[in-house]
């Protein structure tokens, strides 16, 4: 008996039973020192043991029961495998859910001939359709699901040939009973399988469908399922580019159309999964339609219930269907209009002296694409090793910045920082310097659509050892959180007025006053643990700026201390300049998925009530259609999670979505005096030029010429439309 069991054990490696957990717990309890504690005795009682001396006996009983269960499973498998009689075989598999339990068993257990069994099972169903019409008709309706299950199983096993054929068979047997399985996940598996088999053109088609389905799927999924989808979405863009390159090499893409399509998808769908959900939330803050508000509130309530059911392992299908119905009703009221951005469209909107840089980080690799107004085009793809080294350099840069914040004029640290930023400069732009068509010297401005850890770099601080200059001394630099913003042809308005929020009193309550947009997004416990320290230096900053605005005869309004609250922020009406001097926050937690909920600003009462916390998502509800410039002078992104940098641009993006043309924020916090000096110089330049990126560059150059440490000027970056 013992030998027989050991043989079966080798076959069933990886199979878990209900007895494993109690056996492991009891084995640990044998070595507990305090065997008389109430909690210890209670734990034993829950495991069916009334006395510590009976632990060994109970372990023996459970192990015997576990052996018997494994032997029973093995007998079922042998019985099914060795069935020669059709009637006996049919009796084993006639119940569909019983069949699914066998599928689950084969996924878990390391038994022989799994692949052969799954293939023969389908052949058996097909072969015996004339004899067992009832089972065959039942299986016809669910046949696509069976093929899907087999395809998924082979995909997980790495058998891409069988995965591809089964997934294709699922589509060929498609019917009204199983449309739900043809989702983003399905097309993703097809795409990967096709790519692994060398069908690159087909892989691109499947990835294209996968992206479209994922953007539909995201609205009805729980938070945990959204996380999985986001990971796949990040990989798809890289997979599309890799497939397009291989298609070109293998003559499956002779005219380059597939490669162009892959680039266009990278412009449109990088970090885009939450766009529609963000649109729905911003509608709530902007609309006065009671019925539409009610629908949106219902949508987010259903989403909260979905998360609760998912955590409790309850069925979620009904809730997912309800969410889809409400979602369609919302978009019937206010259709979501989106434009598919093509590289040629972006190129047309660039000026003659502008270079656009699209950076993608996926599958542990960097992909960088460059093009200009004349559609000169180049790219550089880092392998995994070089991408790792680039990230390592960025982390060293981050450490050196922290050291400089403590000792801004330490010559040794400055040399080390210049050395590492020169290496990053050469990695990113070195090959363009000698390119005849894309000579780096001819560009006066660089527009960056960044990704990965490169989001944490101040590109203006990259150092060119050859010219002994920072990049900002040679080029204007701006950023975009989405390529779609480059198609916005709006021009800066005449500078007429300014509104300043500064020195919020984080410990003062702001009352129970209701404001437009209250109540659709629940601030969870992660926000309640936040504490914000006072910012006395921002009071001086506000007074200095008020004086500059008065000299230039601008209408200005200033909100200080308790008045610097969310109610006053949400009530503003498109000032030309909006200056906010307060803390920004970034949450490093897997419990929050949407970057627009992981970042925001703190206003009056933030330490007392959730109303003082203003998420980026809530900011999208502001009225900033005629606003040229938003400045976030005290916000920092230095505390961002290095594993997920999406939230670096989320706060800036929220103001652009609200209508602002330009947003200036900081990558790290700097001291009060230098912030005031920088802002005074910047606004003097901006009021002369009405050009944000030019004024920002001029201000930085003045700081450099005055021998100011880069730690004081480099953190200021500009996002624009």
TrEMBL record:
The CHAT domain, residue ranges: 422-719
Source organism superkingdom: Bacteria
PANTHER family in alphabetical order: RAPSYN-RELATED, TETRATRICOPEPTIDE REPEAT PROTEIN 28
Name recorded for this polypeptide: CHAT domain-containing protein
Taxonomic source organism: Caminibacter pacificus
